[in-house]
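Much of what follows relies on a compact textual record of a protein's fold. Here is one such record, which you should read through line by line:
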Amino acid sequence: MQAENKKDYFESSDGTLRIWIEQESSIHIKATTKEGDPVELSESEALEIAEVLKDFASRI
């Protein structure tokens, strides 16, 4: 997974998880596989997403 610096959008490398800032007032998260199953995260992926969410939260 890779975060884009100072952008209002984050997407996992496989596209199963997306996080974005909507109208500069809320954070949206979509996390499903193409089969509709929940996305599983490793410890490092969860920590990376936590950092993305903290960054996004500080900007809305």
